[in-house]
UniProtKB/TrEMBL annotation, chain A:
Highest taxon listed in the record's lineage: Eukaryota
Alphabetical list of Pfam families matching this protein: eIF-5_eIF-2B
Source taxonomy: Eukaryota, Fungi, Dikarya, Ascomycota, Pezizomycotina
Any GO CC annotation of this UniProt entry: eukaryotic translation initiation factor 2 complex
Key words of the record: Initiation factor, Protein biosynthesis
GO function terms (MF aspect): mRNA binding; translation initiation factor activity; translation initiation factor binding
Taxonomic source organism: Endocarpon pusillum
InterPro entries in UniProt: IF2/IF5, Transl_init_fac_IF2/IF5_dom, Transl_init_fac_IF2/IF5_N, Transl_init_fac_IF2/IF5_Zn-bd
Keyword Protein biosynthesis appears in the UniProt entry: yes
Protein name in UniProt: Translation initiation factor IF2/IF5 domain-containing protein
Domain Translation initiation factor IF2/IF5: 189-299
Protein biosynthesis recorded as keyword: yes
From TrEMBL, chain B:
PROSITE patterns xref list: SUI1 (PS50296)
Lineage: Eukaryota, Fungi, Dikarya, Ascomycota, Pezizomycotina
SUPFAM superfamilies: eIF1-like
Keyword Protein biosynthesis belongs to the record: yes
Keyword Secreted: no
Swiss-Prot/TrEMBL keywords: Initiation factor, Protein biosynthesis, Translation regulation
Organism of derivation: Endocarpon pusillum
Gene: SUI1
Protein name: Eukaryotic translation initiation factor eIF-1
GO BP term (any one): regulation of translation
Gene3D superfamilies to which the protein is assigned, alphabetical: SUI1-like domain
Family under the similarity heading: Belongs to the SUI1 family.
Function: Additional factor that functions in concert with eIF-2 and the initiator tRNA in directing the ribosome to the proper start site of translation.
GO terms of molecular function: translation initiation factor activity
Domain of life: Eukaryota
InterPro entries with a match to the protein in the record: SUI1, SUI1_dom_sf, SUI1_euk
Length: 321, 114
């Protein structure tokens, strides 16, 4: 363990640099930094979560435990063999992938593997980070944490010489990454987590979207706006019941709602320039809606929600009723 | 200076053109929507097909090709809208973009619904 400890220290300075780059996330280079960033996050998560004391802390602690295991794993590979190192790398890749594809549901399933946990931890951490606004302390700690996986990879590449291996490792990492997840680049690095929509059936013809308030809170959007969008997209109508749940006319499955939500996020939540979900929706002049990004400061107008043509359905029923 | 100015004018204009183009296109978008009816039944509406195409002929081809019934609804706000029985969103989109269909560009079509 003493060896591992020393290695991280060396890494720290480098990592801190990488982290700073990672925060600014850009395409290929950005992704690289991001990857580093992500690993940092996992380690950082440990550090950040306990002090933050958010509602997610419980989850985080679980993650933390898993993370600890994972760390040990990674540390062992450093000393042991190339194959182990590969495993660790693969695990890291998997984690990245999940984060980028913004799997909302994965989190819930949770903990099949240590690797998965790291991913989830990353996701969760991302959420925490968004709330915290990325504190400076986290950076330093993150750098430290990052040292472990990085060291493992470095040793993996050249058995002992760490500095030379790093770019090679990165290359290998990303080639593998792209092989396994071709859509990671297109989807960008979204470490953004939203709880899956909960859909209940009310009677035969209505669907209750139970946690819309929570989801809206996460997205920082008004319930009305999301509701409007949902109705326009689904081509139905509905109402809000006493406990702020949304009652939608028609039968909808969770998957379908989720699809629409995804589209909403792409259109009205994520910043098109930096892809950060940390944005605000404001009414500008002329009744136009503008999305302002909190991380890069860009501002763009978004189209108003139009319901479009809706055919008349159940005319006879209406006449009878 | 002139070159710089030119560059400046070109860049903003290009962006502006794209932006306005998108805004204008939003009216030219072809919207394919779906509506739920009783039970598993659904209705697909295709709105905003360019006027240079004959809706009746399109409908006839679509009806035959996708084995569904359909009508043309003339709504005062949205113009002529093609209504089809069943969930034909994918089919219609393919038809509109394919060569033997209308050969429209994919980015002019918006598919709504779940």
């Amino acid at each position: 363990m003493a060896d591992t400890d020393t290695v991280p220290v060396d890494r720290k300075s480098r990592k801190s640099v990488a982290f700073s780059e990672g925060t600014s996330v850009m395409d290929a280079d950005g992704n690289i930094s991001d990857a580093v960033h992500g690993e940092d996050k996992t380690t950082a998560e440990k550090h950040t979560t306990p002090p933050s004391g958010d509602g997610e802390v419980d989850k985080m602690t679980d993650m933390f435990a898993n993370m600890a295991k994972k760390k040990k794993k990674s540390s062992k590979p450093k000393t042991s063999a190339i194959e182990d190192g590969e495993e660790a790398a693969a695990a890291a890749e998997g984690g990245e992938f999940d984060a980028s594809t913004m799997k909302k549901k994965k989190k819930k399933s949770s903990k099949p593997k240590a690797a998965d946990d790291s991913f989830e931890a990353k996701l969760a951490k991302a959420g925490v980070e968004g709330e915290d606004g990325g504190s400076g302390d986290a950076n330093g700690e993150v750098a430290e944490q990052e040292g472990d996986p990085l060291a493992g990879t470095g040793i993996w590449a050249h058995n002992t010489t760490t500095p030379i291996s790093y770019p090679l490792l990165l290359n290998r990492f990303f080639t593998l990454l792209n092989q396994y997840n071709p859509d990671i680049l297109s989807s960008g690095s979204k470490s953004y987590k939203i709880p899956p929509p909960q859909c209940l059936r009310e009677g035969n013809k209505k669907t209750i979207f139970a946690n819309i308030a929570e989801i809206c809170k996460r997205m920082k959007r008004s319930d009305e706006h999301v509701t409007q969008f949902l109705f326009a997209e689904l081509g139905t109508s509905g109402s809000v019941d006493g406990s702020k749940r949304l009652v939608i006319k028609g039968r909808f499955q969770q998957k379908q709602i989720e699809n629409v939500l995804r589209r909403y996020i792409v259109e009205y939540v994520t910043c098109k320039t930096c892809r950060s979900p940390d944005t605000e929706l404001n009414k500008g002049e002329n009744r136009l809606y503008f999305v302002t990004c909190n991380s890069c400061g860009s501002r763009r107008s978004v189209t108003a929600i139009k319901s479009g043509f809706t055919a008349q359905i159940g005319k006879r029923k209406r006449m009878n009723g | 200076m002139t070159t710089i100015e030119n560059l400046r004018t070109i860049d903003p204009f290009a962006e502006a053109d794209e932006d306005t183009g998108q805004v204008q296109q939003s009216q030219q978008y072809i919207h394919i929507r779906i509506q739920q009816r009783n039970g598993r039944k659904t209705l697909t509406t295709v709105q905003g097909i360019p006027k240079k195409f004959d809706q009746k002929k399109i409908l006839k081809v679509i009806k035959k090709k996708f084995a569904c019934n359909g009508t043309i609804v003339d709504s005062p706000e949205m113009g002529e809208v093609i209504q089809l029985q069943g969930d034909q969103r994918k089919d219609v989109q393919e038809f509109l973009t394919s060569e033997e269909g209308l050969g429209l560009k994919v980015n002019t079509i918006k598919v709504h619904g779940f």
